[in-house]
Every structure is written in C-alpha cells, then in structure tokens.
Specification:
The chain is built from 21 helices and 8 strands. It is mostly helical.
C-alpha cells in the first residue's frame, strides 16, 4: 500500500497537540464549536490509536516508542504524557456531567436548522442524541482500558486516587450511554401497502416478481429475526404485531431516545433518564454508528481487560441482542434474492421514507459485511461489496473528475441532511443533522473488507482503491494555522465548492483516524497464504534438504572452517524455511532458493577441483 498509517497517524497526533494544547492547557472545540460529541472526537483522535494500535501505546511509559514521545512532547515526557491525559480526560467527563450527576449527551452546536429566522430553543440544543451515546461508549471504554494498564505503572497515592476517580466517572458515563442506546432502539412495523412497505418491496425486488411472492420470501428470510424480537424485554423496540403476513418492518436506532421509551431499571448511578421525543423509526446513519459502538462492548480488549462491571454486562447483553437483530435484518435485506443483482448493488439505496443517496448505500455496505462475516461469507460475496465500493468512489467523484455543477459533490459539502423528526415537540423548528464523512467512511470500509479477503488479486484491487481514496483525503487537509495536517477542506479538491472552512473539524478528523487505525490493524495481520505458492515453496525446500543431506553424506562437514560456516548458514536457512513455510510461503521459497544457490556453488566448486585434478 502507498498509505503509511504509522507516519500519517504520527502527523495527525502532532496536529492534534499543536491545535489543542496551548499555553499549558487543553483547548476544546473546533470549526463546529464545542459539544459532547465534538470534544469526544477530539480526544479519540489521540485515544483510538493509543488503545487500538499496539505501536502507539502510551499507557506503559517505559515502553513508549521514541516517535510517540517526540510528537507528544508538548504534553511532557514519557512519564508525564499519560498523567496529562488523565487530567484532560477528567476535565471532559466533568464538563459533560450536570450538577445533579447526570451525564450530558446533547448535540448542541452540531444541531442545524433549515430556517435561520427560527433559531432552535435552548431545550432543543440540550436534546440527547445517539451520536453522543455511541461516541461516549467508545471514549469511555478507551479511557477505562487506558487507566487499567497505566495504573500498573503508578506508585504515588494521589495519582492512584485521580485514576480511580476518573475511572468511576468514565464508568458512569458508559452506563448512561448504554441506557441511552437501549432507549433509542426502534422497530418500525408497517403494512405492505403503506408508503414504507412499497418502498421496501421496490428495493428488495430485483427480479421483478409479484408483490405477494416477494413479501412471502422476505418474511421467510427474516423469520428467525422476527422470532427473536420476543427476547427484547427491556428498553425500546418491543413489538407484538409482526404475526400478520401483510406486515413488514425495519429495525435500528432512531436519532435519539424514542418517544414514550420506557425507563431502564438499573442500580447504576446514572442520574435522570430524560423523556424521549425522537421518531420511533430507525435512521441508517445512527444505526451504523450505534452498531459500531456496541461492537466495542464485546471486543477482545474489553473482555481481556474486564472493562465492564456486572450491571454493564447485563446492559451489554441487551444491546448485543439488538445488535444481532439489526445486523441480521440489514444483511438479509441488502443481499436479498437469487437474482444477479443484490439490492445493495442497485445504487443508490432508497430508504423507506423514499430518500435516496449514495451515502445510504455506503452505510448499508457496513451492515451487509457484518452479516457476511457472521455467516462466514465467501470471497466472492465480499468482493461484490468491494465492487460496490469501487462504484461509489466513482460516483462520488473521488476516483473520477467531476463536471461543473456536479450534484455528487454535495456528498462532500455540505453533506447529506438528516431531518430529526420529533425534535419540534419541544418548541422551535425541526432540527437537522448534517453528515459529510463519505470519503473517510469509504476508506475505513475499504480497508476493513480488504482485510477479510483471502484472494490476493481481489484484496490487491481493494487496497489500490484505499490508496486512491487516501490520496483524495490527503489533498483535503488544512494547510495553514495550528490545524494544518488535519481536516477538512474539500474545496481544495473540488474547485466547484466555494465554501472554505476555517479551523479543524474534529468530526471529520476522527473519522479519518478511524480509517487509518483500521488500515494499520489490517496491515498488522499475517500476509495472505497462497496454496500454489506454498506447494512451490515445499518443492524447493524438499530439493534443498535432499541436496544438503547429499553434501553431508559426501563428507563436506569435515572440510575447513569456511566450508563449515557455509554449511551452518545453509542449515539455519533450511530450518527457518521449514518453520515459516505454512504461514509465509513466499519468504520460505526465497530462503530455499538461497540455499539451493549456495549448494550449487559447492557442487560447482567440487566439479572444478575434480576436473583440475
């Protein structure tokens, strides 16, 4: 790959510190103001690499790499950096906890309005939103995991007390965010003849079959999912009207706590559980970010470090059930049917409220891949999703030149507008939410799918796409001020865009960091194994070992020091080649070839001596 995630993440770290650490204090906020989401994104630009990429660990000061210390030098030495991070994190968790002890999950400055003459009310600005719940799950788990490891390197009692206090705050926010996600889950049930029903049927009916047949097939494919809804016992999403053969549904997360969502009984001190106002229907964007965050709850790191307490384990199981329902539903719908074309491949994706966008297709690819992974999907199936990503890159003018007044550029700026139905219940206008992460999300999805493929050619094609997306993203970096090397400036790539953003977008920068972390972890895995290459390496190794044994039989081991040194090197290379031939056949073949060359030189030298005698 042309992407060098290690170097790029180091450059981002340097930019984060340069723009955030001024005059000995952490400066919150960026181009979109300061709120519970933006400030979490700002911190995650540091924490995601340090907790998910081994080379970037800073929680063990004695093992911190020199490059990490160098870019984080404004925060102090290797020992001082994690201490300073403890103080900054403490400031965040304190900042977003109200006087009653209730964590704050409002969208605040991220909320938008359509009519500037009707400003949002203060109560609307304070509405909880799923984006904040999801970011808080990721940030809280990263914080607790960081503290669990760092604690082992601390001896001073006052610092241990600070760590304990911060871990308590992070755990409380984690519990509150999990409860918020449980109360934001939605199952939208509708008749097949409703607007939603007709839109869903049109999406899945790629073979143009009769409606009754499609409905029957879809319900049959989703029968296990519908049966599992009976296990949803706490929070929102409880339904009992799916038995009729003329009803369909969709599930996922709404934009916030849904209207009339029940309270969650818990012994966690999470403060007040606010009343919900969000439309009881799933939004693709909020569904995807919720699903990604929930995966962190049952990740290997969470399990090994024991980051969840007993009550959080109970909440996690309830969220995992919703995660499985959502993953299964969307994967089934996205790949439904036996035709030559999946609904996912019929770009752009059209939601049940009849809004169509290439961005929705990109979101659905994420859910479809999770389903394919769970069902052990083949390379052929995964590559079909990869081809959809290639098409999306073309349509979004990432790998193709745009034309004048190209409507595709709205994906990048101002982005896709999501209407937050129900927000008007508190007075004021209906709020909206803008999402413009298309390119960064495309990088992340491309790298993730490439890491799943076992076919070298197909993987190489996706890695080439990832490189081209990165070239696009790299060109969008800010090039001046304290935020240089961070994001986002799409007008640098698309001259048709007139808007020039000032300041760092932590929303966009954090998404790019996610993509680079995914890429780094993908590259950190063992290389693909080719059966053909493995057979070739074994053949080379077999011949090399036989010729070596012949040399020993001829008495070569009784030769002088130089001969013995040559035979020792041959023996070492043969042993190494045999050890790695199953996992790294290419390297094994190279070693075997080197051995064969050395053995041939010995044979040639012996022949020359014989002929001279």
């Amino acid at each position: 790959m042309r992407i060098q995630p290690r170097q790029e993440l180091l450059e981002i770290w340097a930019g984060v510190v340069r723009s955030s650490w001024r005059d000995g204090r952490w400066v919150w906020g960026g181009a979109d103001g300061s709120n519970s989401i933006s400030d979490a994104e700002q911190l995650l630009c540091l924490l995601l690499p340090s907790t998910q990429v081994t080379a970037f660990n800073i929680d063990r000061p004695d093992e911190t790499a020199d490059e990490m210390i160098k870019v984080l030098r404004p925060l102090g030495t290797a020992t001082q950096i994690p201490l300073m991070l403890v103080q900054i994190l403490t400031e965040y968790f304190t900042r977003y906890t109200d006087p009653s002890g209730t964590p704050i999950f409002s969208g605040d400055s991220y909320f938008g309005i359509d009519d500037p003459t009707q400003p949002a009310t203060e109560e609307q600005r304070h509405l909880d939103i799923v984006d904040s719940f999801a970011m808080s799950v990721t940030l809280s788990l990263a914080t607790i995991g960081f503290l669990r490891v760092f604690r082992n390197a601390v001896r001073r009692e006052e610092i241990l007390q600070e760590i304990t206090s911060l871990e308590t705050m992070a755990s409380t926010r984690l519990s509150a965010a999990m409860i918020g996600l449980l109360r934001s889950f939605s199952v939208n049930v509708f008749d097949v003849d409703s607007t939603e029903g007709r839109a869903l049927i049109r999406t899945v009916n790629q073979s143009e079959l009769p409606q009754r047949q499609i409905v029957s097939q879809l319900r049959r494919a989703l029968r296990q999912t519908m049966a599992t809804f009976r296990e949803v016992l706490i929070g929102s999403g409880q339904v009992a009207d799916l038995e009729s053969p003329n009803r369909l549904f969709e599930c996922g997360w709404s934009w916030g706590i849904v209207n009339d969502a029940p309270l969650i009984e818990t012994n966690e001190l999470v403060g007040e559980q606010p009343k919900g106002v969000a439309q009881d229907a799933p939004y693709l964007y909020f569904t995807v970010i919720a699903v990604d965050a929930i995966e962190d709850l049952f990740s290997e790191r969470t399990r090994i470090l024991g980051l969840l307490n007993d009550e959080q384990q109970r909440l996690s199981r309830a969220l995992q059930l919703r995660w499985e329902l959502t993953r299964t539903y969307w994967a089934t719908v996205a790949t439904f049917g036996d035709s030559h074309r999946w609904p996912l491949e019929d770009i752009p994706w059209r939601t049940t409220d009849e809004d169509a966008s290439d961005y929705y297709t990109l979101l659905v690819t994420s859910l479809a891949v999770k389903g394919l992974v769970q069902e052990r999907g083949t390379d052929a199936e995964l590559s079909r999703v990869g081809l959809a990503l290639v098409e999306l890159a073309n349509r979004a003018r990432i790998t193709r030149r745009p034309f004048d007044a190209d409507p595709a550029l709205t994906l990048h700026s101002p982005g896709v507008r999501l209407t937050l139905n129900g927000s008007e219940q508190l007075g004021g206008p209906r709020l909206r939410w803008m999402v413009s992460e298309f390119s960064a999300l495309l990088l992340q999805r491309t790298a993730f799918i490439a890491g799943l493929l076992s076919d070298a050619e197909q993987r190489g094609a996706l890695l080439d796409l990832a490189d081209r997306v990165w070239e696009h993203l790299s060109a969008r970096r800010l090039d001046g001020g304290v935020g240089r090397s961070l994001w986002d400036q799409p007008a640098k790539v698309f001259r048709q865009l007139k808007h020039t953003q000032e300041g760092t977008s932590w929303y966009y920068t954090e998404r790019v960091v996610q993509g680079l972390v995914t890429t780094a972890n993908m590259l950190n895995r063992p290389p693909l194994r080719s059966e053909k290459l493995a057979d070739y390496a074994l053949d080379l190794l077999s011949e090399a070992e036989h010729l070596y044994d012949m040399e020993l039989l001829s008495g070569a081991a009784e030769g002088g020091p130089k001969m013995q040194q040559t035979l020792h090197l041959i023996r070492v290379n043969l042993r190494r080649s045999r050890e790695i031939v199953q996992d790294r056949p290419g390297s094994a073949a190279a070693l075997a070839t080197e051995v064969l060359r050395a053995l041939d030189e010995l044979a040639a030298a012996r022949r020359d001596v014989s002929e001279a005698g």
